Amino acid sequence: MPNIILVEDDLNVSKLVTLQLERAGYSVRHSPTIATGRELVRDGWDLAILDRGLPDGDGLDFAGELRAGSPHGYIIMLTGVGSPEAKLEGFARGADDYVTKPFPLEELLARVRAGVRIVRLQGALIETNRQLEELSLTDALTGVRNRRAFDERLTPSYEHSRRYDRPLSLAVVDVDHFKAINDTYGHDSGDAVLRRVAELISACTRQTDFVARVGGEEFGILLPETPLFEALQFGEKIRSCVAAATLKIGNVPHPVTISVGIANMPHSRFASPSELYSAADQALYRAKARGRNRVEMERRRDATRCAPAAQPGQVERRAACAD
Length: 323
Fold this sequence. Notes:
Layout: E1 3-7, H1 11-23, E2 27-31, H2 34-41, E3 47-50, E4 53-54, E5 57-58, H3 59-69, E6 74-79, H4 84-92, E7 97-100, H5 105-136, H6 147-164, E8 168-175, H7 178-185, H8 187-204, E9 210-213, E10 218-224, H9 228-244, E11 247-249, E12 252-254, E13 258-265, H10 273-289, E14 295-297
Parallel strand pairs: 1-2, 1-3, 3-6, 6-7, 13-14
Antiparallel strand pairs: 4-5, 8-10, 8-13, 9-10, 11-12
């Protein structure tokens, strides 16, 4: 039901308008002043009917406030000031319609119906656009975010970490031997593996983490407020979770593993978001080169005192490596 507010100081007019609108099936809240009208709009509104000559100001000023705070609401001025100049000023200040007193009730109801229809159409359009935007940021196969969404999140996450010196970790995950799965069992089976891996990764993340499919069989995971050692623990957690899961390929249980590369700020200083991603990606390739099904961390050129990478099932405390 549309949420209508009526700001009118004439008690007879307000009672008459409220009665007719409620008979037409609308919910109406009334205020005799701008001050109490401001309190009403805090609970939301769809359509506002405003008088001009109010005890505490001009209703047009209030119309401007409403328009600034809610560009999609519908505003009808209901006033005795009916000169062409006044009407033009009303439209310029944010009104959508202008009704002068005295007015036929049926005309006012018709204008309210038209305003409600416009508000509903706008709401439907906004919701459609929201859904389209959501789809444009979602990977259709796995249901997690896509590369576009990841790129949009990476930059502000990087900037926040750099500016406030807060920890930020990035994990890049790749499904091991995925090409062989596709070549042997077909793309449908490969797609099923990707969906299952995405589910397992998502189940291991926090609400504040950000999971996205950033490539064919590759996932990126942003871990805000996560120091390096905790990120390594997270990487080991998802690695072991996938390795222990039963994934069926062609209705036959098949072992599937992942490799994980981890980069962290401020453990290392990166000049750009792409440099952060590149460091995690290089760690991933090192995990691949060292046998897969393992977690590797990024390594700065001067971080020569870091311990060797942990074997599967092990995470060593390497956060104290040289910076």
